[in-house]
What does this fold into?
Amino acid sequence: MTEGEFVKFYKKRNKSKSHKEVKEKIDLFWDVLLEALDKDKKVVFKDWGIFEKKDIKVRKIVVPMWEEPAYTKPKKAIKFRAGSGLMEAVAGDKDE
It folds into this structure.
């Protein structure tokens, strides 16, 4: 599902009238999530999952064709671990 399809799906499910309004709500969620990750490095949604901001350190790369070792650049990444509620919902084990 593309972002546009997701926005249409959300709009239909939420019975919203404005495509722009729905897109703004979704963008606001991601903006707030990124701000929270900058502040605390971890955001936990009970039963849904955990978003974590990780610092990836410099690593040595060994390539036999090169005479000298190379090194990766340090960077930041976001890791998501699905919670039990999300995993059960995807698996279809949730009691209805």
